[in-house]
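2024-03-11 09:14:02 INFO receiving multi-entity request
2024-03-11 09:14:02 INFO entity count = three
2024-03-11 09:14:03 INFO echoing inputs for audit
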Amino acid sequence: MFRIIPRDTTFFTMFSEIADNLISAARALVDLFDHYQDTAAKTAEIKRIEHIGDDLTHAILTKLNQTFITPFDREDIYRLTSSFDDVLDLINSAADRITMYKIIDPPPAAAELSKIILAQCEELGRAVAHLQKNGDVLTRCIEVKRFENAADVASREAISRLFEREKDPINLIKIKELLEVLETATDKAEDVANVLETVVLKNN
Amino acid sequence: MFRIIPRDTTFFTMFSEIADNLISAARALVDLFDHYQDTAAKTAEIKRIEHIGDDLTHAILTKLNQTFITPFDREDIYRLTSSFDDVLDLINSAADRITMYKIIDPPPAAAELSKIILAQCEELGRAVAHLQKNGDVLTRCIEVKRFENAADVASREAISRLFEREKDPINLIKIKELLEVLETATDKAEDVANVLETVVLKNN
Amino acid sequence: MFRIIPRDTTFFTMFSEIADNLISAARALVDLFDHYQDTAAKTAEIKRIEHIGDDLTHAILTKLNQTFITPFDREDIYRLTSSFDDVLDLINSAADRITMYKIIDPPPAAAELSKIILAQCEELGRAVAHLQKNGDVLTRCIEVKRFENAADVASREAISRLFEREKDPINLIKIKELLEVLETATDKAEDVANVLETVVLKNN
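2024-03-11 09:21:47 INFO inference complete, emitting structure
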């Protein structure tokens, strides 16, 4: 059987752009927690990257709505786009907590979790690059999930420690929420991996 | 090409009823925070409207499951119905916090956010009315999103202020949650707009 | 019209396994709160059951991705699987709060809510068993929703009481979250019932 309609490659390019933009945001987040200074400028930069992500999301959904033949299930393109967007939203949301709650001294787990988020985003970038070329998407996805487990353990331990040591309830609320937002970002990265897995399994 | 099976208009009528009911709930919420008295009766009224919404949701999903030809994608009818229901649930949930937490003195941002929710629901009502007549749905959807951004800014500022001023952690927990529930309602209204946008773009 | 391809019954068997595993988890949760001792061993046991659930979820999604003809809509198989998984995750998450927050004395509502969760899971098990044999799935689903309403009332009352009595904000945060996680488990059980309802209505 031969293909009559050539596969549209635009979607793959657009997903690469989305992944690259997400990696930039994750890098900025790591830098924020690793060198905790100029936080106002750094969180503003993450916000700027998030706006680029909004435009990329909007562009891909518009294209999806106007395209009749898609390279893989429309439903999966939709899910992939929105789960990528969720990760970016949560990275921004974590940075946002810094300014909103005037957090002076984030716990080491915040830097640790950001690094896990970055590692996941880099794996997702590789997976997306492999998607078009039938590369090893599934191994990348497994890595993303492994990182999610690591983040889960790290955040649980950090929150447990927080409840032991932090006696100021208002500060506890702030730090707990920061850690939860970071952990949720790693869950959402796992969601992206799950969609990618589905796409590969359906099309093999 | 001519249409053999006439488009079923019942779904449009049902969505108008859902939108009208939602607008009633949003109005009752604005009244609750604008004139903060008789709160027990007012929250009971919102609960009553929410039950009507449950019946409307159930009716449309039953019809969907029994209808073979739908005026637009079944998946989108499903999504539209449940995202409308989410907004109503959150309006009720916000009102509920008043009784559950015995909130005596809600912050001005609660009234402000309710008004944004009402403005969104009115736009959604107009969008739904335009849907059948090919009116300007997209402009209405853009407005709903603009309002969501405004709500986001308002709630972030209000929560940031709360952390500065409120020294009683238990009161802080109550008010923070009230503001978050209100802000989530505006997110869910944006979700409705996103589905409506998809429906229009697919069918043009 | 006669059927050329026989319906694959594997999915029904797999959903029965998922339901049975979920019932085990819910039973362990009831036991944990009813006899509040050896909590470390009991929460570890729930974690073990959750891992089995992860494997079952993975197996059914893999099969779904590789199966061309499914006994009901792929989308609904996907939704059913992930909503079942959500209930299990939340049961584990509730148990987890015990160790994470070192909760010494959970409120009676925790035991009450666990019993509601178990009752729901048992109804879901019956519904899944009926699914293949065209038994009375809908009545089971209505029961699941009725239990969700009961859980909603129970958790609201318990949280309201907590805010009245608990003066230690950090303890309040712990118990509030435990109750919310338990209540969310009953919401997710309702989601499972909603998917089952959809499946039945579409296929009748």
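2024-03-11 09:21:48 INFO post-check: The radius of gyration of chain B is 18 Å.
2024-03-11 09:21:48 INFO post-check: The helical segments of chain B are 10-34, 39-66, 74-100, 108-132, 137-165, 169-202.
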